Amino acid sequence: MADPKSPPRRLLPDLLVALGLLLAGLAWLMGAGPLSLMAATGAILAYALLALLLLRAWSAPSGGFGWPNRVTLVRALPACVLAGALMQPELYREHGTLLAGLAVAALLLDGLDGWLARRLDAATAFGARFDMELDAALILVLCLGLALSGKVGAWVLAIGLMRYAFVAAGYWEPRLQQALPDSHRRKAVCVWQVLALLACLPGVVSPVAATWLAASALLALTLSFGLDVRWLLRRVR
Questions:
Q1: Burial of residue 195, with CB atoms counted within 10 A of its CB: 0-12 exposed, 13-18 middle, 19 or more buried
Q2: For the segment 167-222, what is each residue's pLDDT rounded down to a tens digit?
Q3: How far apart are CA 60 and CA 220, in angstroms?
Q4: Cα 215 from Cα 193, distance rounded (Å)
Q5: CB atoms near residue 42 (< 10 Å)
């Protein structure tokens, strides 16, 4: 019989609370008009996938989920709504400002989880990975939304897929799996790509302007990854 205090069991209350918040938000968005049942279903499926991954990945031997991770989980809720909206791509064309607002809400909470982890001395490798993977998933969702809406060409997916391609390349070249040092350049590029993608969403931004914004983010990201790859390949293990 499973231990009642096992990590998955202790994680369930947090997941259920977050699910309740998500359902309340979806009900409000559907009542306001812009969100369809299909998009709401997609958001719930995105959350179910997230919950499954968390249950499989979290293996803290003691203690609860922790407030920093709870903040990150709340930050994941607007990302799930944005993912659900992919099932109704016209939302990205007709309600881009609303979706940009949801992405901004997720962005504003970014950093709060890290601050809490330091403040409460609750920093963990799991928490750092959870935060990083959520950032990467949000960027990929925004790229998919822009591509499916037709506002930016399909090449914008390169922004969201580049990080995953880098991780996959590490399986063929072990040197790419080495830890990278902290870099202000890398952080600045990350912030710019998110801001550029957010700026592309509102309807007042023309497709031409959105294309230039996304292209600048892709160029900066490509140069940044190129510098990191060169540093890793030249480093003596």
A1: middle
A2: 999 899 888 888 888 888 988 898 899 999 999 999 899 999 999 999 999 999 99
A3: 37
A4: 10
A5: 21
Tokens of 107: 């962005």
pTM for this prediction = 0.90
Q: Decide if 56 contacts 90 (C-beta within 8 A).
A: no
